[in-house]
């Protein structure tokens, strides 16, 4: 499980720090697929059958639909990330610190304070922390949506980690989480397309006005 969680954090880093928005979006695919693998693995190890259904929904929503939505949005704009508020080298360094230190610190904390939670807790909390960092440091709208996606995946993992405490309540919470996540990201995608469409119209008018002046 440790290798799976580290791999999730690695692809999370690529999604957050790659300058190419297309590469960032494509990095969400292995990121989400590994989450699916983790969910299935946790379900198998702890014999929690409900996690198999959750893993299937994760596969469809997180690993397929959301990357496709974002790739569709990228067709209408430049694929290079808008300059972030923090310089790229510094952002990479801070990301490595947040992911590595955050994950190991939280893991040590949960071992001593919350030994009964599943192993995904530390990974989930690290994703939430890193997603919040990305949201604060990035100005590009696609990157901000990616940061929301990472935060939501982190919350998803946190909920799964609490399954031994309240199985039925957690299953209801996860179902609600799926519905809210899908509706939220569909709304963001629609709004994103509207913004890009307006930007294209504005650029087209500016080009036409410059051509008529010449």
TrEMBL record:
Keywords: Cell membrane, Membrane, Transmembrane, Transmembrane helix. InterPro entries: HyfE-like. The chain crosses the membrane at residues 28-46, 51-70, 90-110, 117-136, 142-160, 172-190. It is a multi-pass membrane protein. GO terms for cellular component: plasma membrane. Its main location: membrane. It comes from the Bacteria. The keyword Signal does not apply. It is found in: Cell membrane. This is Hydrogenase-4 component E.
